[in-house]
Amino acid sequence: MFSIFLIAFRFENGFEFLNFQFEFSIIDVAFNKSNETYLNSAIFGYLCYLIFSLITWKKTNGIDKTQLLIFSLLTLIGISFELKTLYESLNGIYNGGHFRIGILLALIGFLIANRMNITELNEKSVGNNS
C-alpha cells in the first residue's frame, strides 16, 4: 500500500503537504538527482517490512532465513536511503534522489510468508499422521 499510494510532501519551509499520488513501479531508483523534488511516505512501508522481518525471523527455517536476510537487508537499505533524503530535505539540499523498491519487497515478503504457511501446513499434516 505504501509503495503504490504515496503522500507527497516537502520540508524546505516547514512541512508542506503536496498531494496524494498513485505510482506503480516495481523498481524506481535515482541515487543522486531526479526531477522529483518532493519526499513521499514510502518510509512507512519500509518500516512495516522491517517489522514483518523481525516477527517472522523466529518462525523460519534455514532456507527461508536466507531469503528473509536478503529481504531485511533490502529493507534496511530502503530505510537508510529514505532517512538520508529526509535529512537532505530538512537541510535544503535535497535534489530528488529516491530508492523505491517497495513493490519488489512486497512480492518477496509474500513469497516468504507463503513458504512459511506451506511449511506449517506440512508439519501439521505430518504430526496428524503419526
Structure description:
The protein has helices at 42-56, 62-90, 102-129; strands at residues 5-10, 16-22, 28-33, 39-40, 96-100. By secondary structure, the protein is of the alpha+beta class. The chain has one domain (5-129). It is elongated, with a radius of gyration of 18 Å. The N and C termini lie far apart (42 Å). The mean pLDDT is 79.
What's the SSE blueprint?
Elements: E1 5-10, E2 16-22, E3 28-33, E4 39-40, H1 42-56, H2 62-90, E5 96-100, H3 102-129
Antiparallel strand pairs: 1-2, 1-4, 3-5
What characteristic shape results from the CA principal axes?
elongated
Q: Helical segment tally?
A: 3
Query: What value does the Rg take, in angstroms?
Result: 18 Å
Describe the strand arrangement of the main beta sheet, using strand numbers: 2-1-4
Alpha-carbon distance between the termini?
Answer: 42 Å
Query: What percent of the residues sit in helical stretches (DSSP H or I)?
Result: 55-70%
Give the tally of structural domains: 1
For the sheet with most strands, the description reads:
3 strands, antiparallel
Give me the count of strands.
5
Topology as H/E string? EEEEHHEH
Low-confidence stretches: none
Category from helices, strands and their pairing: alpha+beta
**Beta fraction:** 15-25%
Mean pLDDT: 79
